Amino acid sequence: MDLGLKNKKVILTGGSKGIGFYTTKLLISEGCRVAFCARNGQNIKNALQLLGDDNGAALGFTANLENETETRRFAEEAIEQLEGVDLLIHNASGFDHQGDEEGWMRSFQVDMMAGVRLVETAIESLKTSSAASITFVGSMASKFHFGNRPNAYGPSKAAMRVYANDLAQQYGKKGIRSNVVSPGAVWFEGGSWDQRKKENPKFYSAVERKIPLGRLGSADEIARIIAFVASPAGIWINAEHIAADGGQVAAVY
Ligand SMILES: NC(=O)c1ccc[n+]([C@@H]2O[C@H](COP(=O)([O-])OP(=O)(O)OC[C@H]3O[C@@H](n4cnc5c(N)ncnc54)[C@H](OP(=O)(O)O)[C@@H]3O)[C@@H](O)[C@H]2O)c1
Hints:
By secondary structure, this protein is α/β, with parallel strands linked by helices. It has eight helices and nine strands. It has helices spanning 18-29, 41-51, 68-82, 101-127, 153-171, 192-199, 201-210, 219-230; strands at 9-13, 33-38, 58-62, 87-90, 133-137, 177-183, 186-187, 217-218, 241-244. Helix 3 runs parallel beside helix 4, helix 4 (101-127) runs parallel beside helix 5 and helix 6 packs across helix 7 (201-210). It binds NADP nicotinamide-adenine-dinucleotide phosphate (NAP).
């Protein structure tokens, strides 16, 4: 199946590592140009090197999405360099798991407010695209309680889902789709579940056993779902929340 991604222009947050990196890699292999951001400049350089991209299909920007000015500047410069945008993918997260004031502020700034600022900055360009989509990377924590103490991670991802639906209703007539893809637990080297596996192998095994497929998802598997939902091939997916968790959450909804 042709995803229709050839020559599409992508803005993606958090492309230096993990799910964002694998999504960038996949989109480039499908013929996209991808402008991504992260905070750590060295990790951006490493990612660009790993992407081994000789044709300038990957563009790395340093930006902290907790900061409004840096967020809007990233989107503006990305649109300028790409000469437009077709796919906006907001993948980075503030990852609060403590529930303190700083964590609440960080998660809402990165997961929610950066999403709003990116959309506001990119919307006029998206309106001119014939393949426009906005895709948020959420979490199953936006719907289910996983035993953590109250913190900002799930609530900020839940707010993102309401916002994505509002965008879909508002901009559908302009041909812009908006969706959320929510991974369950995902293992990749150096990721948060890799760390848990090393620090607490019993807990990791217990999580694996609860997933019907008997293992955690991979970043590459999540990347493929994000790419499909965001691509022209996913045209009839709009205003949706898509669980990408291998059945980890045992519920019908
Ligand atoms: N991994 C999982 O099991 C899992 C499960 C459910 C949902 N998710 C969701 O999937 C998405 C990606 O998760 P991941 O595990 O791949 O994360 P990750 O490995 O920690 O990578 C996060 C990426 O975002 C960047 N980033 C983080 N904070 C940023 C900020 N303030 N400004 C700009 N860039 C920032 C990071 O680079 P810098 O650190 O250099 O900024 C990195 O490129 C997140 O939205 C997460 O909630 C992941």
